[in-house]
Amino acid sequence: MMRGAFVTLAMRAGFGKPRPAWVIQANPWGEPTSVTVLPIPRTRVAAPLLRVLIPPGAENGLPPPSHVMMHETMTVIREKLGSAFGRIDADARGEVER
């Protein structure tokens, strides 16, 4: 699991069905037992400082509309994550990291 990957996250009880998430934890030393992610809900909210739009694309595999929830950083156990299905592109990554 590498930084920049999009994965499916099985949210804890009460938060609904599995959703996409963006891995923000770098992985230079092997496979960690926990991974830090930013969830990507399908619900649109007018909060441009808290949610950054990620346009759909062949490289990322995300459905539209997709907004990274900057204010909901979470660390989850690795078993809650599905396999990577895409990667964030340089432009979108720059928007999230600014």
Automatic annotation (TrEMBL):
InterPro entries to which the protein is assigned, alphabetical? PemK-like, Plasmid_toxin/cell-grow_inhib
One Gene Ontology term of the molecular function aspect: DNA binding
Pfam families according to UniProt: PemK_toxin
SUPFAM superfamilies with a match to the protein in the record: Cell growth inhibitor/plasmid maintenance toxic component
Quote the protein name from its UniProt record: Growth inhibitor PemK
Task: Give the originating organism.
Answer: Pandoraea sputorum
